[in-house]
Amino acid sequence: MKSNAAIILLLFLFSTITFAQDDLESTTLLKVGNNLPSFTTQSLSGKTFSSDELKGKVVLINFWATWCPPCKAELPLLQKNICEKINNKNFFVLAISRGEAIDTVKKFINKFNYTFPVYLDKDTKVYKLFASKYIPRNFVISKNGKVKMATVGFNKEEFEKMIRLIEKELKN
């Protein structure tokens, strides 16, 4: 009887893991190899920014929110290991706050002294071009406008892999 319960438990766990992986895949709308879609967003200072300004640059687009624990774990590394270390005129970071008011985002950014460029997507129009749910999300875009990497959630090893990819793309 115990072996039947163990088999049922293993089948349940396997199906749950498979569903979770399928769910993550199905919620990623912009896949590796796709072209960067056209969009506009607004900076914290109120300046309008267009994706057309990214042509010829390696780009990291990071979707995050102030209430998201994995985002809070990732943002210090974005600041320290990417924005402060990768100093290249052909590299651009777009940290896009998903679904939050400007005052909430400004308070958060000021509290942690982040200096990376922050943009707003209060109505999630930009986010919905990339994914349908889950944050943080990172998309590395090559100089020719193609998605080279798309990540969901925060994983330190995957984050390090992303940094290596950005450095490699900058050499191309």
Overview of the molecule:
The protein has a single domain (2-171), classed as Glutaredoxin. 42% of the residues lie in helices and 22% in strands. The protein is built from 5 helices and 7 strands; from the N terminus they run H-E-E-E-H-E-H-E-H-E-E-H. The protein has helices at 2-27, 69-83, 102-112, 127-130, 156-171, and strands at residues 40-43, 48-50, 58-64, 91-98, 118-121, 137-141, 147-152. The chain has a 7-stranded mixed sheet, covered by helices on one side. The longest helix has 26 residues, at 2-27. The relative contact order is 0.19. The model is unreliable at 9-22 (pLDDT under 50).
**CATH superfamily placement:** Glutaredoxin
Helix-strand makeup class? alpha/beta
Q: SSE order in H/E notation? A: HEEEHEHEHEEH
Using the CA coordinates, give the radius of gyration. 18 Å
Topology-level CATH name: Glutaredoxin
In percent, how helical is the residue content? 40-55%
Q: Outline, from the CA principal axes?
A: globular
